[in-house]
């Protein structure tokens, strides 16, 4: 009988993969998403070269993170599996990872340029510029090492000449990070057509980041305030 947690994880990762084309982050077979259950030490990941619209939870490939061996699955895992494995082994706060070649963000990656800190939305979500790691080979642990070496507090990074990796401690958080990278990259690109965007001081970015990360949205712990009669 399959572990309930892993069954739930398959549902979440299936949803996450199918959300990528819906948000315009991937085309055809490019990109992938995975999720990691730390209690069992296993991840589930998109099969290699499979249409997103056809993915079902049983199609996902289950892999032991320590050994890298496939535990359950009738299809081959994504060719990016080694990068996901490396990141889960080194990012203790991450449970979901997305890889895309979304257009505007990847355009910055093609130029070996970070997405600069020129929008309050960038400060809110990423706390600073979205970094760009240098070009590395796709063999072995090279991509994973580059991401770890150049990671900042931002839940995403560009890979020179390649694309985007984004992550989170939940499937919606990872999807939000990947979607926001593309959204701010598009806005910055548009601004560059007008002129040179003005940078936000790091001290200001810290204030925006702190407010957004700690005071934005609805707290599930605080009772609602009484409304005026």
Element string (H = helix, E = strand):
HEEEEHEHHEHEEHH
* Order of the strands making up the biggest sheet: 4-3-2-1-5-8-7-6
Distance between the termini: 55 Å
CATH superfamily: Class II aldolase/adducin N-terminal domain
Largest sheet: 8 strands, mixed
Mean pLDDT: 93
Number of helices: 7
Helix content: 25-40%
Based on secondary structure, the structural category is alpha+beta
Number of domains as seen in the coordinates: 1
Q: Give the low-confidence spans.
A: 221-229
CATH topology name, in short, is L-fuculose-1-phosphate Aldolase
Number of separate strands: 8
Please compute the radius of gyration using only Cα atoms. Answer: 18 Å
CATH class descriptor: Alpha Beta
Please, could you describe this protein's structure?
Helices cover 40% and strands 15% of the residues. The model is unreliable at 221-229 (pLDDT under 50). It has one domain (4-214): L-fuculose-1-phosphate Aldolase (3-Layer(aba) Sandwich), CATH 3.40.225. With 229 residues, the protein is an alpha+beta fold. It has helices spanning 4-22, 81-90, 103-110, 120-126, 142-150, 171-194, 202-215, and strands at residues 32-37, 42-45, 61-64, 70-72, 96-100, 132-133, 156-159, 163-168. The protein contains seven helices and eight strands, in the order H-E-E-E-E-H-E-H-H-E-H-E-E-H-H. Strands 4-3-2-1-5-8-7-6 form an eight-stranded mixed β-sheet, sandwiched between helices.
